Amino acid sequence: QPVKANIHREITGAVKSITVSLSKTGKFYASILVDDGVEAPALLHTVSKVTGVDLGLSHFTVESNGRKTANPRFVKRAEKNLRRKQRQLSRKAKGSANRAKARLLVAKCHEKAANARADFQHKRSRTLVDENQAVIVETLKSANMMKNRKLAKHIADAAWHSFVAKLEYKLKEQGKYLVKLDQWYASSKTCHCCGHKMEEMPLSVRKWDCLSCGTTDIDRDLNAAFNIRDKGILELKAAGRSSLLMEAA
């Protein structure tokens, strides 16, 4: 029996599998895996456009070309409406039809924030992929960072891991590179001018002065993006993939 559905794109190729899932808001989704017969492109042998990206909370991304993208904070924007709906849910009798309706409204609020986040991340990752041949990021351990109760909600809302995953498959589709640096790389507290490493660098410090080379007013996040880019270029060169690096952003 035919089922009405919203098809987001034309299906081309041989259908291999269809996975149907039910969301908490009662919507059915069908994920269709197809073989279009097109082989993934070979990785580029020459890389000329490279950018380092520092992921954060005040700015979602800070790029080594100086561009900063604000963190939309989708959960925070929905917080007032969400709290109101959660209070309404708590007042409903357990097992009642009204409680089921209230639970659905809460789920829809969460779904709206999640959809907005996914849309933002797809657009931001698409821009980075289209503009560069290699993107360098740090490997952030969100689970460890979320032990900080003050930041846990904001880190979960940022969903860096999801963003990096989008970057990864988009770059792979075009034969481009994603370089993930070691999580312990001290990108923020190492001076990008001379390489001097500060002993301590609390999160509250947004600008600092290098005691070694005398550089002043170093922007913490932009400095990290410079270091991430430079470290990534070294790793690309070590892998023999970066014979031309004239336009490192």
UniProtKB/TrEMBL annotation:
InterPro entries: Cas12f1-like_TNB, RNA-guided_DNA_endo/Transpos, Transposase. Keywords: DNA recombination, DNA-binding, Transposition. One of its GO terms (molecular function) is DNA binding. Residues 160-228 form the Cas12f1-like TNB domain. Pfam families: Cas12f1-like_TNB, OrfB_IS605. GO terms for biological process: DNA recombination; transposition. Residues 45-149 form the Probable transposase IS891/IS1136/IS1341 domain. In the N-terminal section; belongs to the transposase 2 family. NCBIfam families: guided_TnpB (NF040570), IS200/IS605 family accessory protein TnpB-like domain (TIGR01766). PANTHER family: RNA-GUIDED DNA ENDONUCLEASE INSQ-RELATED, TRANSPOSASE. This is Transposase. It comes from Idiomarina aquatica.
